[in-house]
Specification:
It comes from Thermatribacter velox. This protein is an alpha/beta fold. It has 8 helices and 9 strands. The strands form 2 sheets. The chain has a 5-stranded mixed sheet with strand order 3-2-1-4-5, with helices on both faces. The longest helix is centred in the C-terminal third of the chain and has 23 residues. The N and C termini lie close together (about 10 Å).
């Protein structure tokens, strides 16, 4: 039995793996104390399965806060993502991972080996945080992006690459009479364009797999598929792939 825990800046994910399948998983906000949250998640997922800690053969930690976890092994999120995606989609060549605070693109070889990767972790643009900020301006929820994307009838684009300036630009466009659905679609395309730039810089090739919390956003998914002119593979639970990879590397 292996427990994989991915301590991210926004959410912590835990997966319990029995060697063949996922027994249970949890996704919760990380909060301000990563060490305490990791301990709570470990205790909770074992309780979910009616197991004691003595039943876990190994615990593997990954993610931004992996050093805060008292685990037998700590592995980078890049390695964990690669392992999990090759396990789930053996033919995948590029992983697009967009989380709350960063985004990354990982180029995989035919055996799932990491050939190259690139990260955007210095700016909110192109991340889940950007979508949250723009949703606040538009007075919509994150779930609204998908429906509004499909209702848009006018092509609108955001020229600002900085999240702060994009907020001001969005407010200006609203004052100019642009409709909310068109602006929501523009926000999705802004994230997609920034992501495609990363894909091009790393030489990404299809098949593409989309992971992270933003993979659940239907608007961004559609915008990426239009920009890349191909369908993207999305795991059933795109937020837990790094934690699953930690289990597989255990």
């Amino acid at each position: 039995m292996v427990l994989g825990i991915d301590v991210g800046s926004r959410t912590t994910k835990a997966v319990l793996w029995d060697g063949k399948s996922i027994l249970a998983f949890r996704i919760e906000p990380t909060g301000t104390n990563m060490k305490e949250k990791a301990s709570q998640m470990i205790e909770a997922i074992l309780k979910d399965c009616g197991l004691g800690s003595d039943k876990v053969d190994k615990m593997v930690a990954t993610g931004y806060g992996r050093q805060q976890v008292d685990a037998a092994k700590r592995v980078s999120e890049i390695s964990c993502q690669a392992k999990a995606i090759h396990f789930l989609f053996p033919k995948a060549r590029t992983v697009i991972d967009i989380g709350g605070q960063d985004s990354k693109v990982i180029l995989l070889g035919s055996e799932g080996k990491v050939l190259d990767f690139i990260m955007n972790d210095k700016c909110a643009a192109g991340t889940g945080r950007f979508l949250e900020m723009m949703a606040g301006v538009l007075e919509i929820t994150l779930e609204d992006y998908g429906a509004l994307f499909n209702l848009a009838t006018e092509e609108v684009s955001l020229s600002s690459t900085c999240a702060v300036f994009a907020e001001s630009e969005l407010i200006s466009l609203m004052a100019g009479g642009k409709r909310r659905e068109s602006l929501a679609r523009a926000v999705c395309f802004s994230v997609a364009e920034r992501t495609v730039s990363l894909i091009e810089r790393v030489g990404g090739q299809p098949p593409f797999v989309f992971t992270g919390g933003v993979a659940k956003n239907r608007g961004v998914l559609q915008a990426l598929e239009k920009k890349l002119k191909t369908s993207l593979l999305v795991p059933p639970y795109p937020q837990i792939t790094a934690a699953l990879g930690a289990c597989l590397l255990g």
